[in-house]
Specification:
178 residues; single chain; alpha+beta; 5 helices; Beta-Lactamase; 2 domains; globular
Length: 178
């Protein structure tokens, strides 16, 4: 009988505590994905597509930097619609990186941001949901090409480490992004 009384007392205490907890207001949302920014990030309007001559100039600039550093890579330039305009596979560049360089450039053009933004979001902020987006690539080395405030294309490099790819792309992008 004594054991039953203790059990009933413990059960009553648990139920009372649960009821009190249920009456507390819900804590404020702490999920950063629930934050609503005042302005839309990466809202660069699309412009006319980059010309073949300008795309080649960006590739040549990037290739000169890669050659100087001894990093054989693949370099792709995509227009503002995500279509390949120019491509270079340097001698000795990794074959698998042909498609990856184009993918990085396409990502930068259609998402209007450097591919490093997705790498950072997934690696540093654990934003795994980004992996579900079409044509997303979470690897640096894709840089938008912006002229007069409008997206005209993007450059992508692949074949070295991500940080090396990004350095080469930035040099190529500097011929356009002034």
């Amino acid at each position: 009988m004594y054991t039953h009384a203790i059990a009933i007392a413990i059960l009553g205490t648990i139920l009372a505590a649960g009821g009190a907890a249920a009456q507390q207001p819900a804590p404020a949302a702490t999920n950063p994905l629930d934050a609503i920014p005042d302005t839309m990030p990466f809202n660069v309007p699309y412009g006319p597509p980059i010309s073949a001559a300008r795309a080649q100039a960006a590739i040549q600039s990037a290739a000169a930097e890669a050659t100087k550093r001894g990093w054989p890579v693949n370099i792709a330039v995509i227009d503002s619609g995500g279509n390949l305009v120019a491509f270079l596979r340097m001698d000795g560049a990794q074959l698998a990186s042909i498609a990856i360089s184009q993918h990085k450039a396409r990502f930068a053009a259609i998402y209007r941001r450097p591919s490093k933004t997705y790498e950072d979001a997934i690696q540093l902020r654990d934003a795994k949901y980004l992996l579900t987006l079409d044509d997303a690539i979470a690897s640096r080395g894709g840089i938008p090409l912006v002229e007069d405030g409008k997206m005209i294309g993007a450059i992508g490099c692949s074949g070295a480490t991500g940080s090396q790819d990004e350095v080469i792309c930035n040099v190529g992008a500097a011929t356009i992004n002034k």
